[in-house]
Every structure is written in C-alpha cells, then in structure tokens.
Amino acid sequence: MHVSDPLLMPVRAALLACAALLFPIHAAHAQQAADYQRAERVHDSHLRGALRNASVLPNWLADGRFWYEREDTQGRRQAVLVDPVQATRQILFEPDALDAAVAPLGASGPRLRLNSVQVLDEGLRLQFNGETAINCQWPRLQCTAAQQALPPADALPSPGGDAWLQVRDHNLWLQSPGMAARALTSGGEPNHGYGVLPDFTLRGIPRRQGRMPTRPFAVGWSPDGRYVAGIRYDERALQDYPYLESSPANSARPRVHTVKLGLLGDAQQVRDSLYVIDIPSGRQHDIVLPEGWNTLSEAGILGWDGDRLYAVIAHFGTPRRLRLVEIDANSGALRTVLEEASDTRLQLNVYSYNRPAVAILPGQDTAVWFSQRDGWGHLYRVRLSDGKVLRQLTRGKWVVRDLLGVDAADGWAYFSAGGIDGGDPYVRGLYRVSLQGGPIQQLAADGNDHMADAGTGALFGGRAPEALSPGGGYLVDTVSRLDQPPRTVLRASDDGREVMVLETADDSVIVAAGWRPPRRERLLAADGRTPIFATVYLPRDYRDDGSFPVIDAMYGGSFISNAPVSYAEAVSALNPVSRASLAELGFVVVSIDARGTGGRDKAFHDSSFLRAADVQLDDHVSALRQLGERYPGIDLQRVGIYGHSFGGYSAARALLRYPAFYKVGVASAGSHNFQGMYGGALHGMDRLFGGVLPATPTADGVPAPFAGLDNAALAGNLRGHLLLVYGELDENAPPALTLQLAAALNKAQRSYDLLYLARQGHELFRNDATYTHRMWDYFVRHLAGQQPPDTVLAPLPGGPG
After folding, report:
1. Half-sphere exposure of residue 744, counting CA atoms within 13 Å on the CB side?
2. Which parts of the chain sit beneath pLDDT 50?
3. So what's the pLDDT on residue 1?
4. What is the reported pLDDT for 797?
5. What's the pLDDT at 148?
6. Cα–Cα distance between 642 and 661 in angstroms, integer?
C-alpha cells in the first residue's frame, strides 16, 4: 500500500488529524503528571519536619542558663547550652563524640535522648534515656551507666525528679529509685480510673489496643512535690458506641471496637470530680463538685500557693457561669474565689483549647486572670482571698493572645497580643504590663509574627510556659512571616532588645521542593464593615486572565483560626492541608478567618454560637467575591471548597446553602449533624455551640436548638459535585455522621460520591495517599474540567500505606 495513492489520501488526512489531536492530549497528560509530582513534593506531610530548627524550647537551669535541642545538617540531634548573661552559645556534644563516649557501655548515641541537665560544682551532668540510662559528666563527656533508673516515657516525674507516677490497673502508682512501687490510689475501675485517658478525649480505640501509651492524664504535682492532685472522670453510665472495622489485618471477620460516648442530648454524660493526695501520709480527699458543675476540662489545675490549689469549674446552663475555686489540700474544702457569667461562651483564652491565660502568684494573694467581660480579652489582677478585681491590667480594642509568664518579684506580666496598632490581629507582638497598672510596654511588634512558647492546655499535656526565664530577665522569641523562615532570638525582657540569635531555620529542603509562600489579604465580612483576613496560595503560572478556578480551604470550627500568618504554619498546616499542592495543580487556594472563629473579640467569636459555620460561610462567599475583583485571574464561575472534620461539615454545607456559588466540594470526616456528635459539659458540641441541653428526648432524635444545623435537612439543595470521605475508625467525627448524610442524599435522589477508607482514623487527611490523590483528582476533573493523570502517589508519612 502506497500512501501517495489518490484513493488513500482521505485515509492519510484522517490519520494525520488524529495524530494532531493525540499529540496535545499526550502533552497535556505529561504536563499534568509533572504537576502532580510537584504537588506531592510540597504536600504538608512531606514537608513536616523539613523546616529544620524552626523553634526553640528552652530548658532553664538553676543558675540561669538553659539548654535546648536542635538538629545538625545531617538531621542528628544536638544539645546547645546558652548563657544569657554572657550571651554565649555552645554545643554540649557532637553526635559522633557522644556515640564514641557511650560505645564502651554498649549503647548507641543516636538512640539516646537527653532527658535532663543538672548543674554541678564543676560542669554539668547530662542524663540520657534510651536502651539504658546513662549519665555523662560535661565538658569532658565521661559517661557511665546510671545507677538508678530514670522515669519511663509514660511516667509523670515529680518536680524534683526523685519520684514519678504511672497508671496501673486504673490506679496511680508511685515509684522512687531504689524503692518498690506502691499504689497511691485504690478503687479505680474501667471507665472510672485515676490518671486514665478517658474516652471523651477521642482516643479510646488506640488506647485499648495499646498503641497510645500516655502519661497520667489530668494529674499534676504540687511545686514542692508533697501533693498530687487531679481530675477523675466517670464514664460508666455512658452508652457504648460501636465502630466496625470491616477489614482488620490478618482476619476476614469484621471486628467491633466499643468506646464510651455520650451523644448530644443523652441523659447520661461524663461526670467528674477532683481529688488531692498527701504523699507522705497517703491521705486522699475526694472533692465532689456542686450539682450541675464540672471542671473546665481544658484548664486542669491552674496553680498552687503552698497547700492550696486552684482550679476552674463551670455550669453551662443559662446563663453560663464560671468559677475560680480554691481547694485546701489538707482538708479538701472547696471555696469560690470569683465567678463570671455570660449568655454565650466563657473561656480563659481567646482560643478555646489553648492554655488558660491565668497565673497564680504564690505568697502574694494574687492571680493574673483572663476575662472577656469588657467584650474583648484582657488581663486582670484579682485578690485570691476575696476575689476582688484590684485592677484591669490591659484594655483596648484588641485581645491578649497568651500569657507568657509573670515575674512576680519585679511585678511584670508578659504576654502576646495582636491588633494593638490596628494591624493584622492574628500577627502576634510581645508586650509586658506592670502588675501595679499603667500603660503596656512594647517589646517586639514590627509586623512579623512573634511566637513565644505559652505552654499547652490540659487536654494536650498541660505544659507550663517556657518562653520567660525563671528570673524574668529574658524571653525566647521565634520571629517569622509568610515569606520569611523563622529566626529564634533571645530578648532582654526589660526593653525587648535582641541579646543573641539562637537559631535561623534551615528551609533549603522546602525551597528545593518548590514551595512558594502565599499572600496575606485584608477583606470585609458579609456585614460590610468587619475586617476579616485571608491567606492566598497562587498557582505557579498565575495570570490576570480569568482562567483560574478558586478553591476555598476551610475548617469552620469555632476553636481555631486557620489562615496562616507565619512561614512554618503556611508550609505544614494544622488544618486544612494540601493548599500549596492544589496551587501546583493550577488552582487559586484561599483560607479565610471569618466571623465565628477564635482569636478576636467576643462578639466576633460568638457569631458561631447556635449558628455554627453559617455566618462563616456568608463571610467566605463575600470574601471570595472581593478576591475575584482583586485578582482578575480568578474565575468565580468555578468555585470549589474542601475541608476536614468541622471543615468537612462546612464544605458539604457550602454546597447545600450556596448551590449556585460553590460547584465542587470534598468533605472528609465531616461532623454533618450535631445530634450524632459527643455531648455534655466536658467536651460537648452543645457546650461549645449552644448550651448544655436538658435530658429530654425528642421525637426525631434532633434537639431543637440544633435541628437547623443538620446538613441532612438541606440535602435536596445539592446541585454540584460532592465527594464525602470517611475513615471507619474515626472517633472525632464518627463514620455514622457521613453515612447519615449519604442516606439523606439518597432519599432526596441527589448524586454524590463516597470514599471509604479502611482502618483509618481522624488523621486520614494528613496521612492517607488515597484520600489525597482522590481529592486532587476530584477538583481537576470537576472544577478544572480536565482528565487527571493515571499516577500513584507514594505513601504519606505516618499513613497506612
């Protein structure tokens, strides 16, 4: 056959035309495969930990020096000793030197972790934990096997380090080196133990499987080590909640996991009480709380003054009430110090679960107290003996973010705050104020974000702040912004001057991966007057030609803000993730902190009370329209949204409330209705969004205040493409919630897509490659109108593979 034959010319033309069509298709697929590879390189999970030495956690010594851990250029751990007075910084040991020093003891340096540093008459003693306990004299680095065992990882050491607590058989046991362990409590039982991680912390399945060894929970020592005090949780009366693991490893038979869970509106919820134990005598006092009152679960034990300890209890009826209480460790007597009330929320930080911005000052009959009584979030000095407010320490149309520490001797409180100068309220500056009153003093506020460690709340370990030196003379501050990697400095606390640079973060891996910083934008809420803020990730080839779809990356819960302001946060975010990755796939990706979220004034936050994410979504639509005018490259006819957890609820709700605006949504682990979520005063959605409900069952199982927040009620509104995702062992957002929304969509005869992930818990959005790939594909196919490439992502770090 000769192609020059006139009879075959039409065939030849057709073949050439097909080839011309195939070449662009192949080129497009090759380009998309390359885009996916770039997206994978900048995914949050791959870059988590890649920003080396992004922060410093100081461990202060008795002589005013401190040490901290860092990574060398090979990723090996080092320890650094800092002398603030001399402004010196030196490496305590090199990894190779430590390995050589411990090799004769049969130990391996890389497997050792520096546990503590003690000041000696000459030099220091370094205590390491690992396969064995080892002590090393410094600076000679002469090492010997420790004569006494160090506390294990699941122990809670005493302040002096000479004893520790562990949980055995639902009770607390006391252990001291060289002495037999003894039971400190008795009577602990399943679902009513001492120091046991309760199921309402949403980690019941891994705890039962032995995959989550934890230190004693909600327990603390007095500063002198004489007393132990804590909160005991009683979940015995709660109903069982089943989880079905359909394809367990090494078995064809499905397995049922059962946890204790009180749903919103259940008659029986978690109950709690306080206890305090005198270690020398073994005497225990159990403190029963007044009827209807519970401990504020995120606060724990606030502090001690001699043999008196202070805690916070709350009543979540109407009005809501919160009390600071004092407990006498010798008698167990409980006394109310002060009480606050509100018709909406009461909390001790502008973010619900952050460490309370409260400090008890021993020997001064004084506490520094956080309150939103004036509509913002400020610090007050109160007298503990009678609860009188002696003075308001801070005031103005801005909020205190975190209390970093109090220098009681010299009379200064150190704190972070945002928006003092009318700027971005989420960008933190560092300040101090005299306990005697007067104007606040600026220490560091230059438009960069200043992250000084404020410790953690009780639900996350209850660690005290470390940023301020015990003597009050120095602050450790990590400085950053969206386009500037972190730099950690030591500051003088009197005027904020930089004493020395401790670390400059190494972002070479992040730059090599192709990650690019996002932009920060100030917008207006749907009311036309309230400033709100957004962080925008632009595609690599962004142009002002109206060709780029936009994706709203949303969380929607009232507890946090999620539009990053710092480099580390933007590189590897808490929630949502994949923002930089989706930008590599050609989407403009936006996160917005709208009304109803934390971190701002009380009225801003309370917009979500009884309305959940609805006000936020109104603001998101308004903000995206404003961004469409500011960025002409955005195509507002192609708007998508995704989110996880409360973000999953919000993403689905966006398509149901605004079906003409949002065209594509991916909702993973969504809390799609409130009646199926956990309830009660300790950790319930009723407490967070609308007040604890009376235990009166309703005909349809939906408590009246929350009926309008059920996504199923809007199922008939669905017009766009919606992908629902769930993991079968998710305790934070039970799978039933997604399947109940799916049932409503079936009843309304609406089309949707469903992705089930076997053996997955709530972390699926960070660690599951299948979810990540399907989410990317869904937007590429339905929002960009393209065929995704046939590629397979590598397993994500920490995932099931």
Report:
1. 19
2. 1-8, 15-16, 19-22, 801
3. 38
4. 80
5. 75
6. 14
Q: What is the pLDDT of residue 693?
A: 65
pLDDT of residue 406: 98
Pick from 771, 798, 736, 762: nearest CA to 204? 762
Q: Rounded CA gap, 637 and 222, in Å?
A: 60
Strands of the 227-234 sheet, one edge to the other: 219-221, 227-234, 271-278, 284-287
Q: How far apart are CA 684 and CA 671, in angstroms?
A: 13
Q: How many residues does the chain have?
A: 801
| % residues pLDDT > 90 (the chain) | 81
Q: For residues 664 and 222, give the distance between their C-alpha atoms in angstroms, rounded to a whole number.
A: 54
- 548-553, strands of its sheet edge to edge: 519-524, 531-537, 588-593, 548-553, 634-644, 662-668, 721-727, 753-757
Q: How, if at all, do strands 662-668 and 588-593 pair?
A: unpaired
- In terms of Cα–Cα distance, which of 479, 522, 519 is closest to 503? 479
pLDDT of 786: 96
User: Phi and psi (nearest 5°) for 21?
Assistant: -75, -40
What CA–CA distance (Å, rounded) separates 375 from 183? 47
Contact partners, residue 47, CB within 8 Å, separation at least 6? 509, 510, 513, 515, 571, 572
Q: What is the pLDDT of residue 799?
A: 67
C-beta of residue 127 within 8 angstroms of C-beta of residue 162: no
Phi then psi for residue 685, to 5 deg, are -70, -30
What residues contact residue 19 under an 8 Å CB cut-off, 6+ apart?
A: none
Count of C-beta atoms within a 10 Å radius of residue 382: 21
